[in-house]
Automatic annotation (TrEMBL):
Protein name: ANTAR domain-containing protein
Annotated organism of origin: Amycolatopsis oliviviridis
Domain of life: Bacteria
Occurrences of domain ANTAR (ranges): 16-77
Length: 117
């Protein structure tokens, strides 16, 4: 199933957009997925792990801090880049909550503890 994850996700996004006839919702879903992939990439690079472990890390942190994964992902990317995530024209911005920002900071701090591998 993991081999076909991207295709399944894209299919579900298109099906959801088609059934709800809400293109704004489809764009929001695609943006969420893109930023989650960026956050996974950052975790993979920092931890030298695979995508499944990176996803599990995001999911576990999201649950522990009771924040949405997409908010955590945006907060993590903003924390690393020191700038707000750009929002394409006409699309709703994903603005992380203060709790998501704190979770992202603590998550990244856990990865950068000296001597921790």
């Amino acid at each position: 199933m993991t081999r076909y994850e991207a295709i399944v996700i894209a299919t579900l996004i298109v099906a959801e957009a088609h059934t709800s006839a809400n293109s704004e919702q489809m764009i929001a879903l695609i943006r969420s997925r893109a930023v989650i992939e960026q956050a996974k990439g950052a975790i993979i690079a920092a931890r030298h792990c695979g995508p499944d472990e990176a996803w599990a890390t995001l999911r576990r942190t999201s649950q522990q801090f009771n924040v949405k994964i997409r908010d955590l992902a945006v907060a993590l990317i903003e924390h690393l880049s020191h700038t707000p995530q750009p929002t394409p024209d006409g699309t709703p911005a994903i603005v992380p909550t203060p709790e998501a920002r704190q979770a992202a900071e603590l998550l990244w701090a856990a990865f950068t503890i000296p001597g921790d591998t």
